[in-house]
Write a structure and sequence with these properties.
This protein is α+β, with helices and mostly antiparallel strands and 88 residues long. It has a single domain, classed as Shew3726-like (Double Stranded RNA Binding Domain), CATH 3.30.160. It has 3 helices and 5 strands. Strands 1, 2, 3, 4 and 5 form a 5-stranded mixed beta sheet that branches. A hairpin with a 5-residue loop joins β2 and β3. The longest helix has 13 residues. The protein is globular and about 35 Å long. The N and C termini lie far apart (28 Å).
Length: 88
């Protein structure tokens, strides 16, 4: 499976973030919920969801990639929730 994150990051209606990916040539819209953005690192919470996404982009895209590899996209959309975060 070939996964390429192409972006750009844009603000979603729920104050989360949307980020476009190509998966085997198919466009998949990855949605990172506002709650996931808040919970990824509550100690360094940014006011702007896009800034928060950018500060944790690699970890968030890694989580999205794992879910894509598991075939968890539905109708060309993949959501990343707080429950998907591997909080150590």
């Amino acid at each position: 499976m070939k996964i390429e994150f192409i972006g750009p990051a844009v603000r979603a209606e729920d104050d989360g973030v949307l980020f476009l990916a190509h998966v085997d040539g198919r466009k998949i819209q990855c949605h990172f919920t506002f709650e996931a953005l808040e919970d990824i690192d509550p100690d360094s919470l940014q006011e702007d969801p896009l800034a928060q996404f950018d500060a944790h982009k690699l970890k968030l895209l890694s989580i999205a990639e794992d879910k894509l590899l598991k075939g968890m996209a539905i109708a060309d959309r993949l959501s990343v929730y707080t429950s998907d975060l591997r909080l150590d």
